Write the structure tokens for this entry.
Amino acid sequence: MNVPAFPTGTILGYPRIGRRRELKHAVEAFWAGRIDAGELEARAAELRAATRERLVALGLGRDDSSIPESFSYYDQVLDAAVAVGAVPERFRRLQDEHGSVDLAGTFTIARGEGDDAPLEMTKWFDTNYHYLVPEIGPDTAFTPHAERIVARFAEAKAAGYLTRPVIVGPVTFLLLAKPADGAPAGFRPLDRLADLVPAYAALLAELCTAGVEWVQLDEPALVSESIDEPRGRVLDAIGVAYDALGAADRRPSLFVAAPYGGLDDALPALAATPVEAIGLDLVRGGVPEHLDAATAESLAAKTLVAGVIDGHNIWRGDLAQAFDRLEALRSLAGDVSVSTSTSLLHVPHDVGDETALDERLVSWLAFADQKVAQVAILERGLVAGRESIEDELVAASAALVDRAGAPGVRVPGVRDRLAVLTDRDVTRAAYDERVAAQATLDLPELPTTTIGSFPQTGEIRRARARLQTGELTEAGYRELMHEEIARVIRLQEELGLDVLVHGEPERNDMVQYFAELLDGFAVTQHGWVQSYGSRCTRPSILWGDVSRPAPMTVDWSAYAQSLSDKPVKGMLTGPVTILAWSFVRDDQPLGDTARQVALALRDEIADLESAGIRIIQVDEPALRELLPLKRADQPAYLDWSVGAFRLATGGAAPATQVHTHLCYSEFGVVIDAIRNLDADVTSIEAARSRMEVVDDLATSGFDHGIGPGVYDIHSPRVPGAAEVQALLERAVAEIPASRLWVNPDCGLKTRGYDETVASLRHIIEATRAVRAGLREPVPAR
């Protein structure tokens, strides 16, 4: 086949939510019935048009396939499932006579409806993005549906742009899937690869007919050693999939991108296939030092797309070093192209929007638009020679030097405090001693609680906005927050919850709230990134040494506790999660930064105890998220991440009950780390996965308090009391009731009050029924 030239510069993807979250607002308006599907699609088309125009203005080509078509209304893995017809049985009613699912139906699969639970959701590799987990069984019928992909390509072509469609590749699609309900024991989704590949081939044929020259197939699973599948089987799957797709008569040229780490042993397998271009993440990985002759010969006939611009973080980076790596690759490949290491999905749009940030800090940063511009600079160097970009390389190096010497980047007092820590600082009293000391909390069997936040109403958000604009005084704001806290406490008491929370109305975000109160952080105005679906987060920037100037949560927690005789939890975000959900400095090991954050939280816990708070929750939902994809790197990570949590909580008295919370994780992978956190109680996501985690807990010998979630808060569904009771009964069958807690999967901030109250009532009703069953005598045999 005639292979068109691959662009010399490109990116793997671009933020899709819009510079001011236009897509989020449009999607939520559609869900609320304020606009119809036609209006939603029109707004999305406007957003895509603006993106194409912006990328060309920043230096990407208009007609050379350098612009990736990576748009999604909700999730790229869900899009791939719909494109190959992999719709779960419970949602087959959403398909038309040809097997297609419309936009509304796609949202239903993502969010659930009635008694039909949505697809499970979990983290996308080691990022804070969540993807929807496909459900694949032995009888899943794969049928191609390229209509949406073709329509977006045609939309761009009509406007004068030749774009590159982006699809999750077949190997990654199956490796990220789970067996459908009813699948036989031992079945693995990867078993269906030979059946899935023809559907991908048919998609490629339709794209070829539409005029697509290059298609990007994302295969990040190839770099991961954390997926539960033998590595040899993964390597074999590369050949099965890409030998077949490469041999197809009618197809675009194939660009296989492998972000989030080094391909390592997968590079020879991929190089041996007929794909025309391979994307390498050279920020997190590299090219193996010793390539066999066959691999070297294969690479010499391909384009290597070098991901030398970090797509996962927001620092300006070392352009001179990046260009050196590009030049070194020229001896290996037929052609070299410069790219981002990952999609820019993970970074905000434009640092130029951040008018409130310190100008010196801004000079160290590169958001998505600045990274596209960096790609364009390096592309110019590849074409015209290093001397053509020497000024830009020097400027980038000067910014690195300036950053290293700036005040606040290194604070001697913080570093001196870390230097004198000992093992005693990370070791609490024995667990049995703590259980005895905490008996004075006088909690019932199967104690009920929530994870922390309650719905953030429009009134709360408006009050926060009025405070920022000066329309509301600090005293007036505190009065309004106290009124909301009092309302939440009364509601919980009326519902009958056993351990209460203050609801966190004063917190804009579980990380940003603390970032605004800790030294070493900065926060953005418009630095939004997609977390999942329409949900966005605004990661803070951790740029310097971290310390706590003053208590951050004590007044709010003490006020809430003064309103009730029941225990009220103090609520903190843990050091690993603060790092995972921030853009963290890259000039020192993550473990060093985590320990600095942990010391600040340790001081906060001491002050909460002094204020009379007997239960303190330190949330670590991101513990699994940061687990390195390479096994060799995992022990060191688990050592410092667990150590940071224990440093934060190690000073707590035996009578203080320390909780933690984790969500969206494959818990079996990190069960030993969860045990080593040594929290008195751990609450975890379990409802959307229908309590699968209890098997891991039972077989692992986990012997501390545990609260597997019974209410999936990431769906608008209200679970019935019978559904919750069934989940609890499954948990009680595997975990001693004396250690079992009852709680939702996660915080309630994103839900509305009507659904929240109804769901919590059902949780209380189900808990009382299960408690009653525990008290019934066992019939004599």
